[in-house]
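BUG: 3D viewer hangs when loading the predicted structure for this chain

Environment: internal workstation, default settings.
Expected: structure renders.
Actual: progress bar stalls at 90%.

Input used:
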Amino acid sequence: MAQLLDGASTLGWVVLRGVFRFVFMFLNNCVAIPSYCLYLILLQPLRIWDSSAFWHLEGVMFKWLLAMVSSWGWIAGYTVTEWGDDVRPISEEEAMVIVNHQSTGDVCTLMMCLQDKGTVVRKMMWLMDHVFKYTNFGLVSLIHGDFFIRQGKAHRDKQLIYLKDHLDKYYHSRDRKWVVLFPEGGFLRKRRETSQTFAKKHSLPHLTHVTLPRLGATHVILKTLSAQQENGSISGEGGTLNQKGNKRKGLQWVIDVTIAYPKARPMDIQTWIFGYRSPTVTHVHYRMYPIKDVPMEAEPLTDWLYQRFVEKEDLLAHFYNTGSFPPLEGQKQAASRQMTLDPVWLCLIQSFAFVSGYMWFSLFQYLYCCLF
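Structure tokens produced before the viewer hung:
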């Protein structure tokens, strides 16, 4: 009887905590996202006068919004441990980031673990499925200049044309540095069977923890953003002009990010919102490749990209068997780094959001009373 009462008490506390978290996040969205939009409307004259300053301020506020999302998981004890290469020294250089995709929580995990990587978060461009456009964060991503891609054979060719046009229009003009994409094109659980069937038919590796990546978006990004030599290969020199008129080098790196969840149980956005899972450490592995080592033509690039996901398969298999990633080449033992967020900074950002929301509400209330 006592055990039943304890179980009911625990369940009741979990439900109560989940309701409280949902209410807080709902209010958080109600004040933060409209405030972000209204501040940018107020700053439109600056956009005309000094575009670089405008997008700098937009990037700062964008990073704050992503930090708020990170704080939802951080408060619930959802933290990140990092492995592999340290990407912080190249945070100011241009890079394409390829990530395995298991659930909606992957985006939240990246929002958290990239917070301490210099200006990356405010200067990054996301490639996301078009359904994210209709979420609460969709308007923010639309303003920031992220690209929403529609999946499926019927849309593939047109979407790649749209992607190139989008990169030409927004990447340089808004001083973007990192482009983040999920080459698998969907969640692991939804694509695994189809991927394995395709692999068997074409004598490709059988993958369980990841799926075979798609080439289209990766190829477009490399061709559009990389400085090319006369022979067509990718170079680290040359490039286009940025918004200040300085010459950009183009993409310098491909960063291969592998996300692993304990016991292969992905975190989804519902878990981040309600916090019903016990404190969990998500593990993120980085591997950096200089752009000069990345093939440019479609066929060798496909082979190169497939090899990266075969490596991801091996990394994840090792993690699920041992609880850690293997050491890098030349290392005797793998070293991990605990990613941390400053709770004081998170409180200041949240306070700024609620103060801003109150300010805008009071202003519109005052205007309404004056007019009516």
